[in-house]
Amino acid sequence: MLDTEGPEGIKVLLQKGRNNVPMWLWLFAVVGFYFLFRWYWYRQTLQNLTDKYVFITGCDSGFGNLLACQLDGQGLRVLAACLTQRGAEQLKEGTSQRLQTIILDVTDSESVAAAANWVKLQVGDRGLWGLVNNAGISLPSLPNEWLLKDDFLKILNVNLLGLIDVTLSLLPLIRKAKGRIVNVSSMAGRISLVGGGYSISKYGVEAFSDSLRRELCSFGVKVCIIEPGSFKTLLVEPKYFEKSIQQIWSRLPAETKESYGQNFYNTCEFSASFLKDRGNFDH
User: Fold this and answer.
1) Entry's Pfam families (predicted)?
2) How many whole angstroms separate alpha carbon 66 and alpha carbon 248?
3) pLDDT in tens, 246-256
């Protein structure tokens, strides 16, 4: 006969009841609590958005353009860097007066320095709350043997070295605001599926971001990476792929063309034309 009298008896009964609860029920409770917490966490919104400045590169089109418009609509003070005057003007047409634009070539250190000084004047003592390194290119992305050193540098100068230059130039302002850095990387920064500088540059972005994150965490600065998949931006516009393939192929030595063969070239062209079936490329 089990003695259930007194504190010890109650303890035994509680323990026995706990042991009778099925494991799947405990698992269900834990998973449910996890998703409830996530739901609550992501519903939290930031306050005083109108006092926060965000600098975004590559705002002529694509992700940068969309993000600039969205953040402007939410009330943040967007500082949008565009490569062309036309891109800057088109962006201004669809946004509020809060959004300011500047022409920036991330491969030009003087242009980067001028943009950093401009940002400093805009933000004043508040510092820079957010930096989004979005500017990037993907071409040429073809078999390594087909490419020249300059083909690799063309991509690295934009996607990696330009990103580093912009980040280092703005770090004091980001540190002052205890802000965050968002670097647009890619799944190509984890697995290299094609030759050229694109995957190399994205591997570099991942490494730079990881080291920067550890260095700046004690200052209250967050460093994040976004790895988009295949989205319909100008980065994967079929006509640019086709033009790049044709230009690179035309300059190859006859021996290289013969080694790879026409079928290989046709496969590359087919890969570019396949993108046409992905939908309309509006950005």
Assistant:
1) adh_short
2) 32
3) 888 888 899 99
CA–CA distance from 33 to each of 18, 38, 39, 44, 158 (Å)?
Answer: 19, 9, 10, 17, 43
Tens-place pLDDT, residues 119-160? 999 999 999 999 999 999 988 888 899 999 999 999 999 999
pLDDT band at 8; cut points 50, 70, 90 = low
Are the CB atoms for 198 and 185 separated by under 8 Å? no
Do 96 and 78 share a structural domain? yes
Please check whether residue 43 lies inside any domain of the structure. Answer: no
- What amino acid positions are annotated as catalytic residues? 198
> Percentage of the chain with pLDDT > 90?
53
DSSP state of 75: T
Alpha-carbon Rg for the chain in angstroms: 26
Asked if residue 200 and residue 81 are part of one domain, the reply reads yes
**The whole model's pTM is what?**
0.79
- Is 223 contained in some domain? yes
CATH number for the domain harbouring residue 198: 3.40.50.720
